[in-house]
Write a structure and sequence with these properties.
Blueprint lengths: L4 H7 L25 H8 L14 H14 L3 E5 L2 H12 L5 E5 L4 H10 L6 E5 L7 H4 L4 E7 L11 H10 L3 E5 L4 H4 L9 E5 L13 E5 L1 H14 L5 H11 L2 H19 L5 E5 L9 H7 L6 E6 L2 H11 L4 E2 L9 E3 L11 H6 L6 E5 L5 H13 L2
Parallel strand pairs: 2-3, 2-4, 4-5, 5-6, 10-11
Antiparallel strand pairs: 1-7, 6-7, 8-9, 9-12, 11-12
Bound molecules: pyridoxal-5'-phosphate.
The site of pyridoxal-5'-phosphate has 16 residues, from helix 4 and helix 5.
């Protein structure tokens, strides 16, 4: 009987890492050796499973890929140095001049930069669909649309997009559906089961979950992954074996960590929902979430992010950050330690107010990445900072 993906994420070893050690050894090497000329010839002729060079493959990196493939229910995968290199490789390997990329408007900042600044340099067109207007997707598909790219829940506004609905449109129009599953993780949702062709991740976030290493991975349909692999093996954004080794250990606790992150997040969300300093609060598992029905349908858990709007706007946002005593102010998310951010005065401060509003970044928006500390300590710190807003 095939093991459950949670078990596979803990137990999978590659042929090479099945040694005597109970914990997988780290293959910190840039290249691999052969017994003789014949073995080397056969390896270079693709007639063996031998490794050649760590830019192409490495047992420690393969172990991480195999675990992610199991967790996402994919056919194959490739691991990259960062989430952005996974996103970029998935675009560059599969799109060509004259193609059109359709994306949801609320996406990670650097992904937005790649789409709007770099893809047009190579003749790749793009357009955006409002994340909370599902009826707009089909009309936005053009004859030259080759890929749909989406994030759900979105960052930082936590809108939920119906993956199955978009996947059905993608199939109907013969378009690749590529989903950034960073916020939910495969514990929260499995886009491939809902019809996605590719899933990309920033492993830097919840997958590591301890703020230690950068990493990225793309998994999905094996023919598409083959093209992405060939692109990466020549252009070189491969994951380092050390980071892969760290990340494989991280995956062994992903399920238990995400369960506690989500439990703490739901506790915080419920406790703050009716706070008099807050005009609205979003968490996918709260019935008040605007797309609660879609979240129930496609998500097994709501993840670790809670966001809310301070009635006092921009100034209240700054006060909130300044008065926190325990929560960390940092650009990252998905860590054992709870993190607070105020996009309007930090990550999105360079945009005009109008540009911010177009991607649902309101003046008093606070994003909390709920950590694994005791939920009372997280809540108490937020409450005392809210008092001063
Ligand atoms: C952080 C992030 C990325 C980029 O990942 P890096 O590892 O920082 O390159 C992509 N998508 C989402 C949703 C992210 O949060």
């Amino acid at each position: 009987m095939e093991q459950h993906p949670i078990t596979q994420a803990i137990r999978i070893r590659t042929e090479q890492t099945k040694e005597m050690e109970h914990s997988s050894p780290l293959y910190l090497t840039s290249s691999f050796t052969y017994e003789d000329a014949e073995e080397m010839r056969a390896t270079f002729a693709d007639q063996t499973d031998n490794n050649i060079y760590t830019r192409f493959s490495n047992p420690s990196v393969q172990e991480f890929i195999d675990r992610m493939v199991a967790l996402e229910g994919a056919e194959a995968g490739f691991a990259t140095a960062s989430g952005m290199s996974a996103v970029f490789a998935s675009f560059m390997a599969l799109l060509k001049s004259g193609d059109h990329l359709l994306a949801c408007n609320a996406i990670f900042g650097s992904t937005h930069t790649v789409i709007t600044k770099y893809l047009p340099k190579y003749g790749i067109e793009y357009s955006y669909v409002d994340a909370d207007k599902p009826e707009e997707w089909e009309a936005a598909i053009r004859p030259n649309t080759k890929m749909i790219y989406m994030e759900t829940p979105t960052n930082p506004g936590l809108d939920i997009i119906d993956i199955e609905l978009v996947a059905n449109l993608a199939k109907k129009h013969n378009v690749i559906l590529n989903v950034d599953n960073c916020f939910a993780t495969p514990i929260g949702q499995r886009p491939i089961e809902l019809g996605a062709d590719l899933v990309v991740h920033s492993a830097t976030k919840w997958l590591d979950g301890q703020g230690r290493v950068l990493g990225g991975v793309v998994v999905g349909n094996k023919d598409l992954i083959k093209d992405i692999y060939l692109f990466c093996r020549s252009t070189g954004p491969s994951m380092s074996p050390f980071n892969a080794w760290v990340l494989s250990r991280s995956l062994e606790t992903l399920d238990v960590r995400m369960e506690r992150h989500a439990k703490n997040a739901l506790f915080i969300a419920k406790a703050l929902e009716n706070n008099n300093k807050i005009s609205w609060l979003k968490y996918p598992e709260l019935p008040g979430h605007p797309q609660y029905a879609i979240a129930r349908k496609q998500m097994k858990s709501g993840g670790g992010i809670v966001c809310f709007e301070l009635k006092g706007g921009l100034e209240a946002g700054r006060n909130f950050l300044n008065n926190l005593k325990m929560l960390t102010l940092t650009a990252n998310l998905g860590d054992t330690r709870s993190i607070a951010s105020h996009p309007a005065s930090t990550t999105h401060a360079k945009l005009t107010e109008e540009e911010r509003l177009a991607v649902n970044i309101t003046p008093g928006l606070i994003r909390i990445s709920v950590g694994l500390e005791h939920h009372d300590d997280i809540l108490n710190d937020i409450l005392q900072a809210l008092e001063k807003c």
